[in-house]
Every structure is written in structure tokens, then in C-alpha cells.
Design goal:
four-stranded antiparallel beta sheet; binds copper (II) ion; single chain; 2 helices
Length: 71
């Protein structure tokens, strides 16, 4: 399933890597790519992911999840 995450607080390559690495550790995440310019992450998961479980990951990494779009 595709999810587009809108994330606050990412400013540089370090932030991009920190968010990507944190999300990749989640068992349901297959692939993730952050777009720094948009402040978003395109995420492919093996199942539908809830806002709260993604929010836990993003918050622990030090950023803020604003919303998720699903397709
Ligand atoms: Cu940074």
C-alpha cells in the first residue's frame, strides 16, 4: 500500500536519512523515499498503516507527522 507522509522539521540530508532509516526499521515498511523540498515521504508498506503507528516512528526520530495520504 502507498502512503504519502507529510512531515514537519526536516531541513537537510541528515534529516532525510534519519527519517528514512527510522521508517525502514518498521516491520511493515517495504520502501521509503523522503522528498526534502516537499517535506514528504513516499512510503510503500505491506499493509495499510495507521497514523498513530507512523507518528510513533516519526516522533521518536525527532520530527512531526502532520498527515498521511493513501492511494
Ligand atoms: Cu537536518
Amino acid at each position: 500500500m502507498f502512503h504519502k507522509l507529510h512531515i514537519k522539521g526536516m531541513t537537510c540530508e541528515h534529516c532525510k536519512k534519519a527519517v528514512e532509516n527510522a521508517l525502514r526499521k518498521h516491520e511493515a515498511v517495504k520502501e521509503v523515499k523522503v522528498n526534502l523540498g516537499e517535506g514528504t515521504a513516499d512510503l510503500e508498506a505491506i499493509r495499510d498503516m495507521r497514523f498513530d503507528e507512523l507518528n510513533d516512528v516519526i516522533e521518536n526520530a525527532g520530527y512531526e507527522l502532520v498527515k498521511i495520504e493513501k492511494k
